[in-house]
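cache lookup: miss for this entity combination. No prior model stored, computing from scratch. Input as submitted by user K.M.:
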Amino acid sequence: MPLALPDLQAAFAAHVANDVAGGDRADLAAAVVGDTISAEARLRVYRHHVAHSLSAALAATFPTVQALVGEGFFRGLAQSFVAEALPAQPVLAEYGADFPAFVGAYEPGRALPYLADIARLDWALNVAFHSPKGRRLAAADLAGIAAERLPSLSVALSAGAALIRSRYPIHRIWHASQPDTSANTVDLDAGQADLLVLRRSDDAAFIVLDAGEVAFMVSLAAGTSLEVAAGQAASAEPAFDLSAAFARLLSLEAFAALQ
Amino acid sequence: MTNTRIAIASALAAALVLPVAVQAQGNTEKCYGISKAGKNDCQTATSSCAGTSKKDAQTDAWLSVPKGACEKIVGGSLASKK
């Protein structure tokens, strides 16, 4: 007896998703034409197409990870992820939020302990690139506010901005992985990296923050006032220059416009 | 207002009137840009041939060894290079 349509669709979806339990069902193959090409081979075309397309989408979203490990290794990594986590929505650019965590747990990648942090950086750049421009806070917006009121203001990070903190020098690793790089070797023991990823007018970028700046931004991102954030920054870095840091971050449009 | 708060207020106010040349420094230092082509959700139309193999792909053993720019990353306790 042929499969009812809902059962046929469910069996086909399970096959495409490479679901071992519900995958190669004889009754599914029986519902597919098999002449010069067997029904099983016809079905596999769809499975491979899904795996290949989603792996290609991950390679586009995580170019630095791919550059570090090479295309062959990345294909194995990406297809392992795809088999475990199919997209939950239709936009390919939004596929892969869980990929950095998967990379961190991927056994064959254990020799590269920084790889998951690089994946987080690639993801943050991808999110920043696809985030709406939004209104940014400019120095002129604050000029009309009395100076004594400035410390109690809370400013939020601009749309798409993200802090990426790693115990590895991932800014140097990123730099050494670019196609047109002149960087030679990177010493993994060169210390941590605190990066601020930003959406700019035509692209996404990141900057390196010093200890005071990162404490300042972590505090503001948690919703504190400028006064509290300045205190945190001064504790982290006694030489923190609040004027220079605030001017620099304003000029980079790191903050969202006031509500 | 405490002295600390006054100091913070004046430092923040000073940031708003720093000369443009000083403010612009933030845009020129260590700012690595990426520029991506828009990702077309139909991108597979150009690369579908590679995905339409009728045989299951073999995962070759040598593919489990990363082989890329990671060769430039040295040091670290877990990085087993050479």
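stored under new cache key. The first strand of chain B starts at residue 32 and ends at 34.
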